[in-house]
Amino acid sequence: MDRSERRTLSSITGKVIMALAGLFLVVFLLVHLGINLLLMADDGGRAFTGAATFMATNPVIRLFEVVLFGGFLIHMMFGVGVSIRNRRSRPVRYQHKSESETSPLSRYMLHSGIIVFIFLALHLIDFYFIKVGLVAPPAGVERHDFYHRSLVLFSDKGYSAVYLVGFLFLGFHLNHAVQAAFQTIGMNHNKYTAGIKVFSMLYAIIVAGGFMTIPLWFIFFR
Amino acid sequence: MIFTLKIWRQKNASDKGGLVTYKAEDISPDSSFFEMLDQLNQQLIAKGEDPVAFDHDCREGICGTCSLYINGRPHGPLKGTTTCQLHMRSFRNGETIYVEPWRCGAFPVIKDLIVDRSAFDKIIQAGGYVSVNSGGIPDANTIPVPKPDADAAFDAAACIGCGACVASCPNASAMLFVGAKVSHLALLPQGRVEAEHRVQKMVATMDSLGFGNCSNTYACEAECPKEIAVTNIARMNREFLAAKIFAEKEKQISFTL
Fold it and tell me: How close A113 comes to chain B (CA, Å)?
């Protein structure tokens, strides 16, 4: 019995766990987007700070923060694991590049995932690590709240560019990911699969577009 | 018609192999891809060289023996067509054509363009059958099957097991093949009896043979000569999850014959 035969999890179970973790993150992104859009409210950050304080203090949300980190971790671990196995399954590669028609950007899920991960790491350093005190706040930040931190960061064009690129790739990732997750958990039916594909694309456009609106708004309207 | 062929030549399983360039001249646009290769082989034999080895049998698109990864696509540029049903009129005159074997760790190259696809046989042996005790021949239609189910089962059963799904998949995954085999039995009452057992055994065997994981690129569906739909993969996933979660614990029955 070779090593792969002793696997504790089958390929399908692994993929389903990854898909469910991904769908959980899909719900989280909507909540995060909703709060971030409050940055554009013309009230000196009152609504945004209120929401941020609620997220930082509510015990249920505190518990879900742990679940969220778990969700990210599981999704990334299984994603990388699946990709490694996939590369191994074709030890000798083709000389001619593939001309097969595929679902848009579906070949580049690991690549877009890695770009999103790099952005996530920067994002954690910029916000979460400062909040929990792992990183000292940079000079020029008067208060340690998320609202003023966002103002400082978005006034930097370089940071805004990184932010836009990060979300562009998240959009590419989501466009394939959402509909693929439904396929993986076995939901494919001639009644609703076309609808799921449209939903997947709309969700990607709304989430990526929504997040990208914020730095653009800061550049052009403030 | 004239073509420049870049064909993968490999003496045996342990040889490293590489692309060799040949000129194919005076080819009729109505000749099939294999007739073109036959013509090339005749020239090679006349020159005392080793002819190109490739798999073929029925040459009418039903046996699943032919393979060939042509210009980056299994079975060449036409949709829903096996290599044996592909004609040279589908190519431009003077075109350079790359011909490679299926690439997958579970399909090792035996010689030139021939790969060993017995990994698929192992998956079928693991559960792609219905156990029937011997006895009298049952009357037709004793077991009623709804027409839509029969149609869906037949669509899945159209799989000829050629391996184009594995060849086209960026991950060399066999999910479309296994999905089709699981589906065509799971949709029929005769196949339901062993359905839970079957899907688990076939997926476990597929995993153990070193095929990749499906990442839903749907290249398999686009390249399948029998146009098997990825709905069958979703059905297999459902069957598998239901079996893993709800199946009654099986007793360890083992017997030898």
Answer: 13
